[in-house]
Amino acid sequence: MYTAADPLAKVEKDSEEFRDHIGTINAQGKRAWVYAKKPKGRFFQWRSLVSYVLLALMFAGPYVRIHGQPLLLLNILERKFILFGFVFWPQDFYLVVLGLLTMILTIVLFTSVFGRIWCGWTCPQTVFMEMLFRKIEYAIEGDFQAQKQLALSPWNANKIIRKLLKFIVFYGFSFAIANTFLAYIIGSDELWKIITEPVAQHIAGFIAINIFTIVFFLVFARFREQVCHFACPYGRFQSALVDNDTISVTYDFKRGEKRGTLGTRKKAGFSIVAAAAAGGVTQAEASAGQAAANPYGDCIDCGACVVVCPAGIDIRNGIQLECIQCTACIDACNKMMDSVGKPRGLIRYTSFNSITNGFRSLMKWRTAGYMTLWFGVLSVFAGLLLTREPIETVLLRQPGMLAQRLPDGLIGNLYNAKIFNKTFDSQQAELRLASGIQGELRLIDSLATIGAQNFAEARFFVALKPEAITGQNFPVEIEVISNGKVIARKKTVFISGGATTP
Q1: Nearest-angstrom CA–CA distance, 310 and 37
Q2: Helical (H) or strand (E) element with 82
Q3: Per-residue model confidence as pLDDT tens digits over 426-469
C-alpha cells in the first residue's frame, strides 16, 4: 500500500497478499500512515450534507429544550436519562434495555440489507474525522501529495508552523466536542457553571473536560482510521451479518477484469495493427487479433479508488472488514470512467449476487426473521413507553417492624412509600386503600406537591379491623391517585403476626 516512504506504491493486483495483512500496517509491522486524496463527486456532496445536519444536531442537542428540559440527557451520575421528551429513572431500566435492544436490532437489520451504511454516513467517528478534521488538514497542509511531501520534509519553519497550527485547531475542536459530550451527561446548565465559575469550585468537572479533550484529540489526530479497524466492535461482527445479497460498495469484477492501463492497452492493440501493415496477416485477422490481444475489462488500473480511500484499502480486492462504505471510491472511479468514455458504476452500491447472477434476493428468510424480531421488540417498547404512568410508586413494609394493635383496636402495619414524578410538571399525589377493604390508610408524613422530575417519600399505617384479617399474610391493595384519577394500584402484604389475638 502507499505510505509516506513509498507514496506512489503500485496497487497490488492478481495476488492474494492483501489477505495476509491489514493495509495500514507495513511489512515491518509499523503503522503505514494513510494520506487520502481529497474526495469529490456526487456521493461526497450528499454525504457532506448529511454530515452537516448531524453535526448541527449534535452540537445543538444539549441546548434544545422541551418544557424547559434538554432534548437528550444521559446523566449516569444521577441515574437520570431524558430521551426526546421522555424521562427515565432507575425504575424504568426495563425500558432502557428494550430501547437498546431495539437499536441493536435496527443496526443488525440494516447491516444485513445495506452493509456498513451506518459507518460511512452517520457514525460520529466518520462524520468528525472525514467532514471536520480531515477538511481542516486539507486546508492547512494541502491535498494528499502535499501532506506526503510535508511528512518527508525536514523540520523547517514551514513544517513547524503548519503542524503546530493544525494541532492547535485540532485541539480547539476537540475541546468543543468534549464540552458538548459532557453537556449530554451533566446538562448544559451544569457545564456552564463549570466554564464560568472558578475552577476550584468544579475540580472534577475541569478534570473531566480536559480528559475528554485529550482523548478526542488523540483519536482524530493520531488513532484516526485505526478506531474502525481495531477498536470498534461493529466492524468485527459485521461478517456474521452480511451475505452475498447484502448491498454494499462493491467493485464489479466481471466488468472490470482483466485490468490494464491505457498504455498497456494501446501497446497491445498497435502491435497487431503493425503486423498487418507489414503484411504478416490480413486486416480481418488483425482486427480479430487485436480483440484477442486486448482482453481487458473497464478497469484502467489507475489506482484512483485506492488513493482516495480513508481506510487505506483497495476496494477491488473485494469486501473487507476495513471498508466503511464511505463511497469515496465510487466518486473517484466514476470520474475516471467519464474521462475515458466508459459508463459509470464500475464501483457502485450493489451485491455480490447482482454482479455474478444479475439479480439479488430482496427478501430472505434471515432478513424476514430480523424484521419480525425487530418489529416485535419495537412494538413492545413503543407500547410500554406510551402507556407508562407519569407517576411511579414503590411501596415497602417497614423492615423489622411487627404488626401493632392501635389504641382504637385496629391492627396496623407501617409502610414506606416513594413516589416518583416522571413528568416535566408538578404533580399532586394521594394514597388510599382500595374499596372493599375494612380499614383505613393513615399518613404519618403528608404528601406535598411533587416537583417535576422529582420524588417524595412518605410513611403511613394501614390499619385493618381484626375480623377483616383472614391470615398472617393478608393481601391489600393501595390506590395511587393524581389529579382525582386513580393512576396505579399497588398490591402489598399485610402481616398480622398474631396481633389479631386480644
Answers
A1: 8
A2: strand 80-83
A3: 888 888 888 778 888 888 877 778 887 788 888 998 888 888 78
| Residues in contact with 333: Cβ distance below 8 Å, sequence separation at least 6, in sequence order | 304, 305, 344, 346, 347
pLDDT band at 282 (very low <50, low <70, confident <90, very high): low
Residue in the block written with cell 404519618: 444
Check residue 9 and give its pLDDT.
45
Triad 269, 272, 277: Cα angle to 5°: 125
Domain ranges of the chain: 391-495
Q: Provide the β-strand partners of residue 490.
A: 478
Q: Is 414 in a helix, a strand, or coil?
A: strand
φ and ψ at 414, to 5 degrees? -95, 135
Question: How far apart are the C-alpha atoms of 188 and 493, rounded to whole Å?
Answer: 44
Mean pLDDT to the nearest integer, 326-334 = 96
The rounded distance, in Å, linking the Cα atoms of 409 and 37 is: 88
- Calculate the CA 50 to chain-centre distance: 15
- For residue 275, pLDDT over 60 is answered with no
Give dist(CA 484, CA 429) in Å, integer: 9
Q: Three cell numbers at 94?
A: 426495563
Question: Angle CA(493)–CA(497)–CA(498) in degrees, nearest 5?
Answer: 135
Domain 391-495 in CATH 2.140.10.10: no
Q: What integer pLDDT is reported at residue 262 of this predicted model? A: 85
Residue with cell 455474478: 356
CB–CB of 373/105 below 8 Å? yes
Nearest to 135 by CA among 55, 248, 23, 30: 55
Separation CA 78–CA 75 (nearest Å): 6
Asked if 483 contacts 428 with a C-beta cutoff of 8 angstroms, the reply is yes
Percent of the chain at pLDDT > 70 equals: 89
C-alpha distances in Å from residue 472, one per residue of 155, 253, 402: 86, 79, 11
Confidence of residue 66 (pLDDT cuts 50, 70, 90): confident
